[in-house]
Amino acid sequence: MTRAGAVPDNTAPDNTAPERTGPEHPGPEHPGPEHPGPEHPGPEHRAPANPVKCVVWDIDNTLLTGIYLESGDEPPGADPVLAAVLAELGARGILHALASRNPPEAAAHTARVTGWRFAAAECGWGRKSDALTRIAATLGIAVDALAFVDDDPYERAEVGSALPGVLVLSPEEAAEAPGWPEFSPPVITAEARRRGEMYAERQRRQEAGRSFGGTREEFLASAGTQVTIAAATAADVPRLAELAARTRQFNSAAGRPPAQAGDAAPPGGDMTEDWFGGLLSARDTDVITVRLRDSFGDDGMVGGCVITRDAATWTVPLLMMSCRAMGRGVIDALLAWLTRQAARAGASRLLIPCGRDGRNVPLRLALAAAGFRVPGPPPAAYQRDLGTAPPALPGWVTAPGEPGGGTA
Fold first, then answer.
1. Three-class SS of residue 265?
2. I want to staple 293 with a disulfide (CB 3.0 to 4.6 A). Which of 274, 298, 307, 389 is the partner?
3. Exposed, middle or buried: residue 174 (CB in 10 Å: 0-12, 13-18, 19+)?
4. Is the pLDDT of residue 324 over 90?
């Protein structure tokens, strides 16, 4: 297992599929975490556990028990251990994709014999690292949210060298992966279990958008986009905690509990369900949810934020949004509503502290596009003065304070 690059060696791949052993029964060639092997460092040598959002699988001698193009009239079947890993990780909301040196028919065969609908498939003879980059772009997730499984040590080394943020695994290591923290989200909600289905809906939406002749705003309206901004309830707490743990590109706290959340801030802990539950009853604090749906499907809760209020200033110590909402006007709608709602309450400025890291650049660009500015050097908060005319809100947004939107 690697997260950093390694120099590819000249070892020829073994074309015989190895016998898989499960996480509870490591074999002699399958070192468990307590018995580090040359490619599977022990816990003290492992990289920090970034959550894996998508596993990209090789096909030959990995998900299949042989080589597709050398199998004749009867292509090889699914490896039973790794097919079980597909199902287990999929139930946790982790996506699966394919990257293989094969024709597209191999991907279709692999989907049939494993019984799995892959979120993306890259079949061809180019570099696997390029295939992973395209898969991440197709799914709208960061490359370092990927894991890659391949039986060929050269392919693993090439990906590890070109994309050091990717978690690179052999098939034997992948058999153990369900027990690792990278693959064990702290919260699994109904939205998580539907993630594969929602990404299929995303692909249909993208295809329709490419063939649409009008503007993005016209397409969103024609697709029946509905964004609902509302006050959070106790039933929303598990999903809010899941978003806090999983979002990075659109997460103002950069995965760390914001100190500005007042009395409800956890004592050195994480943004857990208990933390969000405490915020629901905190003084001068609002917890907001954002839901998204259109004619292609219901994405459920895709975002949220925490607001602390005083007479002159509203502060948003936490703003988070799923990457599934990217490009669909949702982050723009939330920022516009926050600006309008703060101005209605008589505040003179709106502050959004935003931790700076390499992963939440899309959020910082969205803040700048919405008129927020950083008045000083980091870590100064993004702010917007509220003395000017508030931004417009699309008609497909329902929110507190807006016509038909209720109260926060």
1. coil
2. 298
3. buried
4. no
The DSSP code for 251 is B
Pick the CATH number of 43-183 from 3.10.105.10, 3.90.550.10, 3.40.50.1000, 3.30.1220.10: 3.40.50.1000
- pLDDT tens column, 89-127: 999 989 999 999 999 999 999 999 999 989 999 999 999
Alpha-carbon gap, residue 117 to 134, rounded angstroms: 18
Report whether 54 contacts 145 (CB < 8 A).
Answer: yes
Neighbour tally for 165: CB within 10 Å: 16
Give kind and range of the element (H or E) at residue 321: strand 313-321
Q: Are strands 95-100 and 120-123 parallel, antiparallel or unpaired?
A: parallel
The closest alpha carbon to 319, from 340, 341, 303, belongs to 303
Strands of the sheet containing 285-294, edge to edge, are 382-385, 349-352, 313-321, 297-309, 285-294, 226-231, 397-398
Q: Give the domain ranges of the chain.
A: 43-183, 215-398
Q: Which tokens hold the place of 104?
A: 């597209």
Q: What is the pLDDT of residues 122-166, one digit of tens each?
A: 999 999 999 999 999 988 888 999 999 999 999 999 999 999 999
How many CA atoms within 13 Å lie on the side-chain side of 307? 24
CA–CA distance, 244 with 246 (Å, rounded to integer): 6
Give which of 290, 116, 139, 249 is closest to 201, Cα–Cα: 139
The CATH number of domain 215-398, selected from 1.20.970.10, 3.60.15.10, 1.20.1540.10, 3.40.630.30: 3.40.630.30
Burial category of 79 from C-beta neighbours within 10 Å (exposed 0-12, middle 13-18, buried 19 and up)? buried
Question: Is the distance from CB of 104 to CB of 123 less than 8 angstroms?
Answer: yes
